[in-house]
Design brief:
Shape: globular
Helix content: 25-40%
Number of domains: 1
Number of strands: 3
Distance between the termini: 20 Å
Number of helices: 2
Amino acid sequence: MIDDVLATGGTIGATAKLISRLGATLIHVSVLMELEFLNGRELLRQHGVANCSAVITT
């Protein structure tokens, strides 16, 4: 999955849940910018998303 900004993880978390319901596996998330202070990766881990890369982390 590719997203523009990882902030709280809500959009990616919801998408991960939908992908799982469809019987598929989300193996990697790429984002352009991560707002690290909002701890979005924590929510992603709760949804089983372990692999995430960001071009810019602030």
